[in-house]
Design a protein that fits this description.
The chain is α/β, with parallel strands linked by helices. The chain has 6 helices and 6 strands. It has a 6-stranded parallel sheet, sandwiched between helices. Helix 5 crosses helix 6. The protein is globular, with a radius of gyration of 15 Å. The protein starts with a strand and ends with a strand.
């Protein structure tokens, strides 16, 4: 069974120790895991000695009227799938821990590429994605981040974030 980390403080404490001797691959997710997510876990397992999957429905990436409240939350099923896949750690924080001052706080802004294509119809969506990914990178400190190619714009923006902020993370 993966070790479930439910607070930022716990994740930092545990994963700082892990990072002293092991490489860490992170697969960031919203949960409601499917085969696509599990294929990313397989890549993560080949890319580092320890795998972390985050399961966090991020309110910052949902605009008013979108489906944040209705987004499926299937944590027990997700945990069973991650156990079967051999994941080492699951980071599943509460919204209040990730955003103790609410979501109207400092944001990572994706620049011009975050306002076109899909984002032209979902204002501030990618700013929310990039903000939570930055937080996850700072909390978990992965050597590798594994993201799907299904959302090419999101992948491009995360790669740009890593490059532009000089983060020492290999985005796969």
């Amino acid at each position: 069974m993966p070790h479930v980390l439910t607070t930022i403080a716990e994740a930092k404490a545990v994963l700082r120790e892990v990072g002293k001797t092991d490489t860490i691959a992170l697969v960031p997710t919203l949960g409601a895991l499917h085969e696509g997510h599990l294929s990313l876990v397989d890549i993560a397992k080949r890319s580092a000695s320890k795998t972390v999957v985050s399961v966090f429905v991020n309110p910052m990436q949902f605009a008013p009227g979108e489906d944040f409240e209705r987004y499926p939350r299937t944590f027990e099923d997700d945990l069973a799938k991650l156990d079967a896949a051999g994941v080492d750690y699951v980071f599943a924080p509460a919204v209040d821990d990730m955003y103790p001052n609410g979501i109207k706080q400092t944001r990572v802004v994706g620049g011009p590429a975050a306002g076109i294509l899909e984002a032209a119809h979902r204002l501030a969506h990618f700013d929310g994605v990039l903000t939570v990914v930055t937080k996850l990178f700072n909390i978990i400190r992965p050597n590798v981040a594994v993201l799907g190619e299904k959302d090419a714009q999101q992948l491009f923006l995360v790669r740009s974030l890593v490059r532009d902020l000089d983060l020492d993370i290999d985005v796969v």
